Amino acid sequence: MLLINYIKMVKHLNIYIKLIAITIGFVFLYQSCLNDPFMPEEFLNATIPSVETLKVTNKTATTITISGNVLRENGTEVTERGFCWSTGDSPEVTADNKIEVGEGLGAFTETVKSLLPNQTYRIRAYAINAKGIAYGDIEEVKTIKGLGVVKTLDVDSVNANSAISGGLIEIDGGDGEEILSRGICLGREFNPTAEIPSAMETDSFSCRITGLLPLTKYYFRAYVKNTVGIYYGSTDSLVTTSGLPSIGPLKLLDVRTFDADMESNVLSEGDAFVQARGICFSKSETVSIADDTIHVGTGSGKFTATLKSLRPNTTYYARSFAKNSYGVAYSDTISFKTINDLPVVTTMSVTDIADGNAKVGGTVLSKGYTDLVSCGICWATHDAPTTEDKLLSFSPGIGLFSGYLQKIDGGNTYYVRAYATNRNGTSYGETVSFKAPSVFVNVSSFMGLWRIGAAGFSALGKAYIVGGDIGTQYTSQVWEYDPSSNYWRDRWSFPLGGRKFLTVFSTDTIAYAVGGLVSPGNPTNDFYRFNPMQNDWDELTPFPGNARWNAGGVYVTDRVSKMGYGYIIGGRTTAGALNEVWRYNPRNGEWLQAETFPVSQFGGIAVSKNDTIFAGLGQKNELIPEKKLWSASGDITSWKEETSIPSLASAVFGGVIFNECIYVIDSNNRIWEYNIKQKVWIKKSTLDGPINTSHCMFLLNGSIYIGMSEQSSLMTKYDPVWDN
């Protein structure tokens, strides 16, 4: 029993001993876990630490602030902890991309620096023990740009070599990005980079830009430079001023013979003090201060000056000027003309060119330096008439004068200019010219054959040619010329056949034909009446006198009785020239013989003015032309001798009365004018063309027509008012 109890006691003691041993073992093991004393690795069951990446607490353009925590060392102590980063997917610990933050267990925080702005990084915590490197989770972080926004402010106070501009920092570069400088970039090209720093350290800043060139375009923009980099505002531009003064227009106040008063105004001095101002002038259009110059003070404001020692009647050019350190500014150039010491006169246009006259005139604008002596018009056929040429004078005085040049030669070009004279001399206006109408103008040529001894008359404003010798025979043709249409046409022929040297007189509407030669040269006393309007011939009672040819015929209206009569004067028979004068009364068809003509003649002229007949200038025979002209008035009871035509005149073959003058043409084509009142003959122009021994002369609608000679078919209009 005792043994059994002993055995049981031993069994219980062993159990207690084992329990005590186990307890002691657990105590040692527990103490070992608490103190983890260094032991050789092979004796430990250690692993890499446990670490976690906490949150990012801050970031800038170049830094990231982040936290981590070593949770357990896992059997061996943590000798290093910190953060590593990379732009790749899995950052690992290297020499260049980690930052150490102590050792051991616990939380830790650090700022990673020297990063790139606006860059995405991957970053995580790490911990190192003897077993290796442990990493926390990866955080993806993007740094901020680090550059702000700056606005370029408007430029101000621009002048020739400086300006003011600046900027406004609207958004800065972020916390921790220190601004190193701010200011303006300037250059001649767009987006300049040359920096002009501002001394100001505020968000709104400005700086003065100096050293600019006048009249130059510059580009500028604000800039801000921080630890990250530089950022710019928008680019703008400016153009510097010239720096010159601003000067108003030059005004002419008064101009005289030797001087002129002027006014101008310096509106602004520009970018520097006006050290000189005044007026420069010259006879050249390109005037500057290198020419004659008058200085009038300094600074801005109005000023006046008198230009002296000028030349009379001279055009000058002038402009005002103002000078500062940047140069010289000028007004626009004006011109002025000093008053002539001679008179100033202008020529008016020539007008009213008619009837051998032309209206001319001029205006005396200034008498000059002394009183007027004379003024008027000088004129000539050369282009520079003077007072040595023909003159039309007027009473001297200021203002308009006009009058008429008279008896102008037709067909010439005349040059006219006004003149005015004072004690200093004579001055002239502009030269004007005009062409006088021609004396002779060829109209439509006769359409029939040339002929000798045709009779001509006028009625109803038209000319008629009857009969004549066409070389092979005497013709009975009647031709009519109408000046209004300038056309010839054939009319009803003379009913008795061909005639030569008919004697014709006519009223305004009816013509009467007497006698003439019948081929081969026999005289007749046939008497016919022609009605141009009806274009028919009526046979009348034959002429009672001797048969004759080439007598003078004229129709006259008595001033008292108002009765019209036809006259035939002289003529030729087979026996010779006649001096008979016969009168025909168309109302009763009666012929009466009147007072005989003073001489026997054939041909010549017989024309009338009112109730006066002018006759003569015929021929006594084939060789001797008569030079005397006679007149008779009223009932033609007596003849009065007029002035004889000059001896130079050859045989006369046609004549008319126009404007109180008789015009005749001789066989040498010379035209002669006889003034009825003055009793004077004047030789006029000579008709161009072959010398003729026969002409017809007509007065049609106030114009003289000459034609139908034996050598030419031309019909020519002659204008005596221009034959001077």
Proportion of helical residues: under 10%
Structural class: mainly beta
Distance between the termini: 203 Å
Strand content: over 45%
Give the integer mean of the pLDDT values: 90
Structural topology:
Elements: H1 2-35, E1 50-59, E2 64-72, E3 80-86, E4 98-100, E5 106-112, E6 120-129, E7 132-135, E8 139-142, E9 149-152, E10 162-171, E11 179-187, E12 194-197, E13 204-210, E14 217-226, E15 230-232, E16 236-239, E17 246-247, E18 251-255, E19 260-268, E20 276-282, E21 292-295, E22 301-307, E23 315-324, E24 327-330, E25 334-337, E26 344-347, E27 351-354, E28 357-366, E29 372-380, E30 390-394, E31 399-405, E32 413-422, E33 425-428, E34 432-435, E35 440-442, E36 455-459, E37 462-466, E38 478-482, E39 487-491, E40 503-506, E41 511-514, E42 517-518, E43 522-523, E44 527-531, E45 536-540, E46 552-557, E47 564-569, E48 572-573, E49 576-577, E50 581-585, E51 590-594, E52 605-609, E53 612-616, E54 629-633, E55 640-641, E56 652-658, E57 661-666, E58 670-675, E59 680-686, E60 696-700, E61 703-709, E62 712-718
Antiparallel strand pairs: 1-2, 2-5, 3-4, 3-6, 6-7, 6-8, 9-10, 10-13, 11-12, 11-14, 14-15, 14-16, 17-19, 18-19, 19-22, 20-21, 20-23, 23-24, 23-25, 26-28, 27-28, 28-31, 29-30, 29-32, 32-33, 32-34, 35-62, 36-37, 37-38, 38-39, 40-41, 41-44, 42-43, 44-45, 46-47, 47-50, 48-49, 50-51, 52-53, 53-54, ...
Relevant terms:
single chain; 724 residues; mainly beta; 5-stranded antiparallel beta sheet
Descriptive overview:
- This protein is mostly beta strands.
- Helices cover 5% and strands 48% of the residues.
- It is built from one helix and 62 strands.
- Strands 3, 4, 6, 7 and 8 form a five-stranded antiparallel beta sheet that branches. Strands 11, 12, 14, 15 and 16 form a five-stranded antiparallel beta sheet that branches. Strands 20, 21, 23, 24 and 25 form a five-stranded antiparallel beta sheet that branches.
- The chain starts with a helix and ends in a 6-residue tail after the last strand.
